[in-house]
Each structure stands twice: as structure tokens, then as C-alpha cells.
Amino acid sequence: MKYIDIHCHVNFAAYDADREEVIIRAKDADVGMILVGSDQATSELAVDIAAKHENMWAIIGLHPTDVATGFDTDFFTKLAAHPKVVGIGECGLDYFHIDPATNTVDKQLQESIFRAHIELSEKVQKPLMLHIRSSKIDDAYQDAITILSDLKSRGLFTQGGDVHFFAGNLDCARQFIELGFSLSFTGVITFAKEYEDVIKNIPLERIMSETDAPFVTPVPYRGKRNEPSYVVEVVKKIASIRGEEETAVATQLVKNAQTLFKL
């Protein structure tokens, strides 16, 4: 593989009609991919799909907007033992999506289940895939950093991971890097400039490429459903922002994923 999409959702219903065709297009573009679950069903399906294909892996967990269902530790622990599972998540804190029934976010519940993912990550020795999203008034990034920093200082967090769809500032980026995280970027960087300061000023060795497909389709495919083969456009944009040669950047991003996720 010449490229890698470290966070996509080909296991979601958006691909039920043409999943194999999407996978073939990614393979034809020399794109490897990591399928990420958001609950029990999509985590299990991610593993099932990955098990049938080369250059495809899975990450399993419970999305912070789905925590009301509860975290089944036994289920996820058993699934995490599968050799195609390379990480735990996407997990974390989401203050952006408000529960319409209560018009609030249950931060205490989100934190509790985030900590359960961290414990599982340590137990199975596989890195985290973080979903962190702030609201206009509450900084989920700093809350996540506080939790992780405390656990790391006590030797309770050692695995590191990736901060998916990173949207924080440079100082925040550096704090996550200090904690052992990489930062991944999606197709949004092809049409929004606010990510460029971070991309320019952190080590290439701590950058990952992703699509978050079927969401945030990059230019020139805007308006279409996103898919893993489009990660090529994300890699092109990362190289352009950094003023570096595209092939060298693509090679390093694959190496970064191989190192973190032990592919």
C-alpha cells in the first residue's frame, strides 16, 4: 500500500449497497484502511470485513455520543483479542452534540466510558483512537488532556494513540504529542485553512491521514459520499501545506500507521 486511511467507516450502512466496490477502488488506488466502530454492531462488522481482506484492519469501541447504551466490557474485551483489531475507539469526549431530550451533555457518563476504553487499551496493549469535539463554551480537548495526563503520571496510560479529525490549536497539538499521540486529518483540510498552522508545525512523524468516510468528502469530490480511495487527496494536501514531496509524505504516513498500530 502506498497510502493509508487510518479512520473510515466502510462498516457503516452508507456502504451496504456497494461495500465491495468501494473496497476494490481503495485497493486499486493502493490504499490500506482501518475500519472504525462506533458501537457493538459496527465494531463487530469492522472486524468481520477486515478479516476478509489484506491491508485492512479494525478499531473497536463506543462513540461518545452513543454512551447511553453502556459499555459492555466483556464484549469489547473478547473482540479486542482478534488479530485484526489494532486499536480501541473511537472513544473520548463530545460536547458538541447535545442530547435533544435533555438539551445537555452527560459529561460524567462520557468520562466514565472514556476511562473504560483507556483501561481496555492498557489491558490489551493496543492504542486509542480518540474522538474529541468541543462546543463553543466547553473545551473537550483540555478535559481529555487532563484525564490522560493524570493517568499517564500514575503509569495507568502507556499506549498512546491517534486524535482523529484533530481540530485543536498548535499548543493543544503539542500537548497530545507529549502524551504519545499522533494527530490525523481529513478531507476538510482541502477546503478549510484553519488546520494549516498545526500541519506545518508538528513533526511529520506525528501526522496521520484519514477520510472519516462517509463524511467530510475532500475536494475535488465535494458533494459525493466520501470513501477511502479519496485519502490520496488528503495526503496531497498535507504535502502541499508542508511544502514537501508528495511521495515522501505518503511513505512516511504509511510508516507512521504501521508503527503506531503495529500493522
Task: Describe the protein in words.
With 263 residues, the chain is an alpha/beta fold. The protein is built from nine helices and eight strands. The protein has an eight-stranded parallel sheet with strand order 1-2-3-4-5-6-7-8, sandwiched between helices. The chain starts with a strand and ends with a helix.
Produce a short descriptive summary:
The chain has 263 residues and is an alpha/beta fold.
The averaged pLDDT comes out at 97
* Tally of helical segments: 9
Shape: globular
Q: What is the alpha-carbon Rg in Å?
A: 17 Å
Please tally the β strands and state the result.
Answer: 8
> What are the low-pLDDT stretches, counting only 5+ consecutive residues below 50?
none
Distance between the termini: 12 Å
Strand content: 15-25%
Helix/strand-derived class?
A: alpha/beta
Q: What composes the largest sheet?
A: 8 strands, parallel
Helix content: 25-40%
What string gives the helices and strands in order? EHEHEHEHEHEHEHEHH
Biggest sheet, strands in spatial order?
A: 1-2-3-4-5-6-7-8
What is the multimeric organization of the chains shown? single chain
Short descriptors:
eight-stranded parallel β-sheet; 263 residues; alpha/beta; 17% strand; 9 helices
Write the layout of secondary structure elements.
Elements: E1 3-8, H1 19-28, E2 31-36, H2 40-51, E3 56-60, H3 73-80, E4 85-94, H4 107-124, E5 128-133, H5 140-153, E6 161-164, H6 170-178, E7 181-185, H7 196-201, E8 207-209, H8 231-242, H9 246-261
Parallel strand pairs: 1-2, 2-3, 3-4, 4-5, 5-6, 6-7, 7-8
